[in-house]
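To fix ideas, we quote verbatim a fold written out as tokens:
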Amino acid sequence: MVSAEPDNAGAPAARVVVLASGTGTLAQSVVDATSDSDCPYRVVALVSDRDCEAVTRAGAAGVDTTVVAPGDHADRAAWNRALTDAVQQFEPDWVVSAGFMRILGQTFLEAFPSRVINTHPALLPSFPGAHAVRDALDYGVSVTGSTVHVVDSGVDTGPIITQRAVDVLPDDTEATLHERIKVVERELLVDVIAAAARGRLHIEGRKVYIS
């Protein structure tokens, strides 16, 4: 079980490292929330697997950035160790995967047990994987959404923290549907990180609740 006393009154802001691989709009929302004086966390670094817009955005916001490129390492295991080392140096309380397009290895997950959070643009366990929005459209569902979950060794199989539905409109394309899901994702992720930072996130096996 992972838990803490609710609200953590008087505690220092929780340290968050964000993992991102793409445009960084989701990571940007996590960083932007810290401008609120009541925000209980601060983003101490953004770590990426490539030089991308997410890195540029974080740097512009004054956040430390590090790139750990898979091509710079002998194999996946070596890259996972390097990624683990890169994140550990920032001593995070929580690690947030915000559009990070790599599977995190066991070495990484063991270094941050039950402290890695991810968002997924579907209502898990439906439509896991990298093409969730496209898969939902192809299947013909009328409702999809966003899931925030704890990362485990599977692909989008970790304990679910929270979910919110998004209607699929008759004229939706992958781009239009994904854009509406992203709006929900940003809100959910910031809310979950804040709850975790305040010690209100409780994980008991596959059951997760926010007190």
